[in-house]
Amino acid sequence: MATKTIEPPKHGFLILLLSFLCLLVVYPLTAGHDSNAYLIRSFFSLLLVVSLYLFTYNRSWFIAAIVLFIPSIIFDWLGLVYPGITFNFLAHLFSLLYVALAICGFRCLIFSSLKITTDTVLGTICIYLLIGVFYFQIYSMIDLFSTDAFIGTFAANKEEELLYYSYVSLTTLGFGEIVAKSLPAKFISILEAITGQLYIAIVIARIIAVYVKQEKS
């Protein structure tokens, strides 16, 4: 029996990738401005909304995403209006779970494809970027309970630096401006670096396998 190919929502991964690029551009351009935190929250909320659109390919995935999406948005904005550990922890926790669900759901969507398409390529890039956001949420939770878990020169908004640190760890660039000090932070940093390398290896192997099969057919 032939495996059924699931088609992603039209232009979904392209829109998600553009949302990511907007988020990464807004971070440095608005650094130091009073509106920085609100702009970042707005673009991150947009990122979650676009991700939610991609879940519409499957009813079960979509319902699960809605359950995590709503508290993620609510607690994220409450954490901005009412600074403190409680709302911020809940915001990072639900965002972490939502992003984890997105990674799993989008992986199933992409790996069901029997041919290499633009959506396949864009989807694999989006998952890679989502992995960076996933670990960023973990680092942020660690920092909430242990403010000296990371050492380095931080901006006024420490979350900006932790997002930067996450992608530096994911790509194994390791510039060294920020260093993990606590044991949990070190362990998660190692895990992220391994995840980044394994993901690239697995995706390349998958694309080659599908391409070879596509050429033979």
Automatic annotation (TrEMBL):
Lineage of the species this protein comes from: Bacteria, Candidatus Aerophobota
The protein's name: Potassium channel domain-containing protein
Pfam families on file: Ion_trans_2
Transmembrane segments: 12-31, 37-55, 62-83, 89-109, 121-142, 162-180, 187-212
Record keyword Transmembrane present: yes
Annotated source species: Aerophobetes bacterium
Potassium channel domain ranges (all copies): 158-211
UniProt keyword annotations, A-Z: Membrane, Transmembrane, Transmembrane helix
